[in-house]
Amino acid sequence: MNVQSTVRDFRPCPELQSYFASYTIAYINDKQSWIQQRPAFPQQYLIFYPDEPQLHSNDGNKFQRLAKELVIGPFTKPVFLLCSPLQLTIIVHLLPGTLHRLTHLPLHKILNQPLDGINCFGGEMRSVNEQLSSAKTCEQMVQILETFLLKKVRNIKDTLPIDHVFHLLLTVPYQYSIEQLAKLSCVSLRQFERQFLERIGTSPTTFIRQTRFAKALRLKRVRPDLNWTTVAYECGYFDQMHLIRDFKQFTYSTPTSYKNFVVAPALVK
Length: 269
Fold this sequence. Notes:
Elements: E1 6-10, E2 20-29, E3 34-38, E4 44-48, E5 55-57, E6 64-65, E7 69-72, E8 79-83, E9 86-94, H1 98-103, E10 115-116, H2 117-121, H3 123-134, H4 138-153, H5 161-171, H6 178-184, H7 189-200, H8 204-222, H9 228-234, H10 240-251, E11 262-265
Antiparallel strand pairs: 1-2, 2-9, 3-8, 3-11, 4-7, 4-9, 5-6, 5-8, 7-10
Helix pairs in contact: 3-4, 6-7
């Protein structure tokens, strides 16, 4: 692979687009280690580290080494990652509900905790990682991933009406009430909340807040000229104070102090 730092995104093949949003292959070649802060997120991922894995912390101080193959459910707290100067990370971005359908895991039981992928997929996930380590190009890596994923979705759990609601919330996370979403899911409000917790890992309200917040961050990144008041309005917030509340909960910071996921560099001792 190219020795320069590079991040590339790939769209899944048509057979996998109902389950996976994209693949990201990130190769970092830096002079020193650095700490990356990620906001709390509702997304679900499979992550492979063909070389050395990153280190993970809940507070930015005490770090623990991650497994080389990871299953990641939702996080309601910010995450700190210690990245090495040479870091290869391969991420499969799952659409909401896919992880539960693949693993049958109740996702609320893995809330805020990275899960060793071997515990979910056995040695098969390790074998995929070993193949990724030997791949010479990003395109070869994508082919390896899709061979594995196509095999997995052959036996995936059937969809429920609520799975279609998840996709709706990705597009317009603030347009529907919880009662309306339950009706679209063809279940009672109580059943809707139970199914949501099992398949997404958080309550519907938390998922909607996090999805709307992620949309606000994306808009600000694409349009840095916009002030936060405009961003709040465009993303369906009642006012800027509601956006600030989400900032404090999901990033431990405020809009003015937020540094686009990255805090000061840190040398590995």
